[in-house]
Design brief:
The protein is an alpha/beta fold. It contains 11 helices and 10 strands. The chain starts with 12 loop residues before the first strand and ends with a helix. GO terms for molecular function: rRNA (cytosine-2'-O-)-methyltransferase activity.
Length: about 280
């Protein structure tokens, strides 16, 4: 068990600072204060983060921390914190660790009894969810689907029966293809496609998948897809009897074995030949 009292000890801190997803005015006063006060800032892309820091006149030293240098950057950042330095971690936009680098560093910080503290801010998935017009809870945040169609189809097959609203991220050059795959596997569900959230060209397109696909080809900007849950899931009935016992129940009531098998198959949503094979296996 790890019990963290964030502000009641002298341990170094790893601050997970949410940054604006578009409009720079979305940053909180607390986030600016933390970025000014920490000893170092770990950044997904220092070229992007420096623009944010310059806007708020923040001079804190940057350290590169992205998915391709984790083996080098994680030990470096952990060692700096163990030496008593406080570090803020930022991604290019939104929350670190949500479809961005961060999780691995958080795990290592926890192992080393370093305080991990969230600094609230903008979130593309929540912004899109609340304006979608689709039931906001319960919801499942999935993030990016796999880039390869074969793997993407497998992911969608696993998700198609979820009754929760599902949130996906997608890039503009894959959006139409992804929407077509969702339509193919999920059916024509209600969705909201949100792009350029909080920026000048912010747009929310609400409708059914078949409708939104028609206008998705020339859209630009990072996308958030809100998909309504499956409202047609047949709840699986749990039977305490085995299939053989279930068939025998109807046989004992005077039904023929053939009709009993047919009835059990219907009740259990199984094929008749599956029930037949299971029942007659007892005679072998």
């Amino acid at each position: 068990m790890n019990r963290q009292k964030s502000f009641e000890n002298n341990q170094p801190c790893l601050y997970l600072v949410a940054t604006p997803i578009g409009n720079l005015d979305e940053i909180t006063y607390r986030a600016v204060k933390i970025l000014l006060e920490v000893d170092y800032i770990g950044a997904e892309d220092t070229r992007n983060t420096i623009k944010l820091l310059n806007h708020f006149n923040i001079k804190t030293k940057l350290i590169s921390h992205h998915e391709h240098n984790l083996l080098h950057s994680i030990p470096k950042l952990i060692n700096l914190m163990l030496e008593g330095n406080n570090i803020a971690l930022v991604s290019d936009a939104g929350y670190p660790a949500i479809s961005d680098p961060g999780y691995e560093l958080v795990k290592e910080a926890i192992k080393n009894n370093i305080n991990v503290i969230p600094i609230s801010g903008a979130s593309a998935c929540l912004n899109a969810l609340v304006v979608s017009g689709i039931a906001p809870q319960p919801f499942l945040f999935y993030g990016f689907l796999d880039h390869f169609d074969k793997k993407k189809k497998k992911e969608l097959e696993k998700l198609k029966n979820y009754e929760e609203t599902i949130i996906f991220y997608e890039s503009p050059h894959r959006i139409t293809k992804t929407l077509k795959l969702i339509l193919e596997i999920f059916g024509d569900r209600e969705i909201a496609l949100c792009r350029e959230i909080s920026k000048k060209h912010e747009e929310v397109i609400r409708g059914f998948l078949s409708e939104v696909i028609e206008v998705s080809n020339n859209l630009k900007g990072e996308m958030v897809i809100i998909v309504s849950g499956n409202n047609n899931v047949i709840e699986e009935q749990i039977f305490e009897q085995t299939i053989v016992e279930h068939v025998n129940e109807y046989v004992n009531k005077g039904m023929s074995v053939k009709d009993s098998i047919k009835e059990v198959a219907k009740l259990r949503n199984l094929k008749k030949n599956e029930v037949y094979a299971e029942y007659h296996q007892k005679d072998e």
